[in-house]
């Protein structure tokens, strides 16, 4: 279709204008593939650039797309860093060989061992608790206790929760599988399906909005979504969030299910040193407090303070199931959901 001369021109252009990976990337630049889509993150990248002189290129996409893209790009990838949510996905990225081990005393000081991959291939940046958010005017807090208690008939037609395709739910079920075994986990999922107010649809924020609209009485959601609604631009979201209570399940036994968002240096990072510097920066006390104050997530650096809103919800006991186990039990959890009929 193309005369030979044109084809040659196109080939030369591709080489000259960066369609192939440059052999040496300047050290003053890193590329971040991220699923996190919050203003707090961009503010932190800008602060890092000002401080280090390293430009941060950001590519945002859905989490599974980023993993797919890294797989396809292989050694040609421009990515230095992967940021994603849920331990299940971090484990998946590691298992696919998309990350590499990083040794940094600074990171070890700032991120506790339980919040890291045992082989140092990924590090949690923030913690999120999967809690019960309920209509204060319709639910007596004394009737709330544990994830298991949601199996009770008193919740028939009252529970709102998103689809089982969602990894937050898969990790929650993985934790239940770890604690009680596969059969009990399936029984739990079936009972919750029987108690659902509707077929799952929408994201965590939509479940809270549906509680406010009276479609159900309680929602299983991550904490920061209530924070985001309370501080939303839309006054309607702010108002409805004010009518919600937050309950941390399983305080009498293993603790509330916790998950993380996290970061890892990619297997073929052109600027490995710059990538490590970014992780060290994001784990620093002041950066951690930016995550906590503007995105209502819990810091992983023990020196960092949670924001005012998080503090107002009170201290709570967290389930200490190893994060890697949530990843290892992910496939089983997804299959259990299918058998239980959780759409
Ligand atoms: Fe989220």
Short key terms for the protein model shown above:
D-Maltodextrin-Binding Protein, domain 2, 9-stranded mixed β-sheet, binds fe (ii) ion
Bound molecules: fe (ii) ion
**Classification by helices and strands:** alpha/beta
Rounded to an integer, what's the Rg over CA atoms? 22 Å
CATH topology of the largest domain: D-Maltodextrin-Binding Protein, domain 2
Determine the CATH superfamily of the largest domain: Periplasmic binding protein-like II
User: How many domains, in number, for the residues?
Assistant: 2
The residue ranges in which pLDDT falls below 50 over 5 or more consecutive positions are 1-26
- The CATH architecture of the largest domain would be 3-Layer(aba) Sandwich
Mean pLDDT: 92
Q: What is the count of β-strands?
A: 9
Strand content: 5-15%
What string, H for helix and E for strand, traces the elements in order? HEHEHEHHEEHHHEHHEEHHEHHH
Query: Tally the helices: what do you get?
Result: 15
Shape: globular
Determine the N-to-C terminus distance. Answer: 48 Å
């Amino acid at each position: 279709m193309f005369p030979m001369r044109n084809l040659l021109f196109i080939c030369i252009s591709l080489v000259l204008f960066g369609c192939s990976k440059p052999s040496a990337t300047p050290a003053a630049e890193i590329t971040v593939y991220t699923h996190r889509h919050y203003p707090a993150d961009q503010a932190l990248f800008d602060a890092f650039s000002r401080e280090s002189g390293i430009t941060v290129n950001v590519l945002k996409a859905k989490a599974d797309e980023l993993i797919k893209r890294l797989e396809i790009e292989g050694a040609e990838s421009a990515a230095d860093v992967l940021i994603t949510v849920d331990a299940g996905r971090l484990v998946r990225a590691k298992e696919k060989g998309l990350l590499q081990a990083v040794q940094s005393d600074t990171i070890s000081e700032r991120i506790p061992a339980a919040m890291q991959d045992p082989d140092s291939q990924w590090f949690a940046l923030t913690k999120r608790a999967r809690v019960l958010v309920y209509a204060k005017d319709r639910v007596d807090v004394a009737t709330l206790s544990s994830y298991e208690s949601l199996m009770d008939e008193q919740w028939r037609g009252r529970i709102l929760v998103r689809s089982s395709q969602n990894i937050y739910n898969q990790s929650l079920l993985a934790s239940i599988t770890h604690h009680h075994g596969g059969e009990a986990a399936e029984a739990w999922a079936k009972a919750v399906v029987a108690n659902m107010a509707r077929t799952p649809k929408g994201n965590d924020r939509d479940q809270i909005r549906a509680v406010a609209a009276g479609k159900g009485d309680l929602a299983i959601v991550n904490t920061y979504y209530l924070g985001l609604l309370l501080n939303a631009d839309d006054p309607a979201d702010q108002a409805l969030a004010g009518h919600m209570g937050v309950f941390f399940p399983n305080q009498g036994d293993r603790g509330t299910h916790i998950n993380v968002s996290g970061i890892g240096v990619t297997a073929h990072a052109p600027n490995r040193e710059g990538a490590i510097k970014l992780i060290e920066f994001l784990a620093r006390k002041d950066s951690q407090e930016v995550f906590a104050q503007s995105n209502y997530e819990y810091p992983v650096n023990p020196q960092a303070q949670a924001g005012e809103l998080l503090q107002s919800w009170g201290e709570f006991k967290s389930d200490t199931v190893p994060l890697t186990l949530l990843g290892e039990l992910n496939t089983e959890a997804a299959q259990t959901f299918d058998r239980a009929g959780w759409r």
